[in-house]
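re: ur question from yesterday

yeah so i grabbed the chain u mentioned. its 223 aa long if i counted rite. heres the sequnce exactly as i have it in my notes:
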Amino acid sequence: EIEIRYGDLNASSDEIHIKVHGKSCHGAYPDTGVDAIVMAAAVINSLQTLVSRCISPLDSAVLTLGTIHGGTAGNIVAAETEMTGTLRTTDPAVREKIIDAMTRQVSCTCQAMGGSGEVVIVPGYAALINSDEIVDVLVETAEEVLGSQHIHPKKFPSLGVEDFSFFLEKAKGVFYHLGCANREKGITAPLHSQDFDIDEECLKLGVQLQAQLALKLLKRDIA
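ran it thru and got these structure tokens back, copy pasting raw so excuse formatting
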């Protein structure tokens, strides 16, 4: 069995680092400081609207903040708060739009509350976008090797990442999934689990598909 998808298959990823700067003071006199934790809460609430209100519901995007650290004691207004997260999108234009909006919202939200905020983006993987004409050749090849009943179109892209995306930024190509489970042998554990295994019989089919696909592409003028 193989799974295929035309166009976007996997998301891009970016590490998000947000710093919120306030002014420390005694917790009994909050008016003499600028609370970085309260600002961070406002930033978090603001960023939750990015995907739901700034991005079309027809596009794929996920913005997750996974850590938040700030403050030194329960009776001291925090001077600084740091947050980290991840951004996943399948469209480079959507990726840039979210980064621009996120940078603006963090800065303006903190400024409005008397502090300052900054966003640092560490680029990760690119979005994996298959070349439709190469997918067509894959389907043709797989029909010959496996039969059309063993080809399964993937309905939605995954917001997980895949480094084959960097090859597809340089040349046309296709990434697809080769079935490697076997219920009769008890090989059913999902990827990234401690019990993951493959039925190695699938490797022969995978090599055959790759070789025949390469031979077909060599005979065709797909630049």
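noticed a couple things. The longest strand covers residues 12-21. also The helical segments are 36-54, 92-112, 132-145, 165-168, 201-218.
anyway ttyl
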